[in-house]
Amino acid sequence: MQVICQPVGPVEANCYIVLDNHKALVIDPGADGKNLIEMIKALNAEVQAVVLTHAHFDHMGAVDDLIDEFKVDVYMNPAEFDFLSQPAKNSSSAFFGMPHVKLNAKPLPLKEGEQKIGDFTLTAYSAPGHSIGSTILKIQDCLFTGDVLFNQSIGRTDLATGNADQMKESLEFLRNLPGNYEVYPGHGPATTLDQERNNNPYLIFPNMI
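Given the sequence above, the corresponding structure tokens read:
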């Protein structure tokens, strides 16, 4: 399996293209839909679905472009279905000068636990705190943590539906998740779960949150 990271949009959110046997999942296409489509076509892979870790504008702004082009579904935590069409919830209205994002997509529910999406086996872990529907995705030995866990940091909790106490619980879950994983966060460079357990101050000192 190959993971391609493409930062997109004004805040450089990480969009991930997960490739396996010429099949692809697209995780968090936040912006730059035309460029993402060209990149995916150049890979000569069959896009099977779009999956969101959460529905803030910088992680889902290009969803309509991709599902229109590739005729696929978008999967996400149903707690955030209404974020797609509500700028106050997807936080596009919270930043001065940012266009308000409203999508037409009709999402399908990303279920808690293991599931098949196309040819991919994916496990979804609910991890609220950054937003009510924030979800960590496990595919093979990779964790896509959205804006829950970053390299040496974590996501903010002061946007709509954010909650510091829930973030502490989600980070506690990650601390106790058995095994080590490659971690692909929503912003910034990749890391590993063991590196974060040993070096991320928010995992070491949870009361910092």
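Helices lie at 33-42, 57-60, 63-70, 87-90, 164-176, 193-199, 201-204. Try to locate this feature in the token string yourself.
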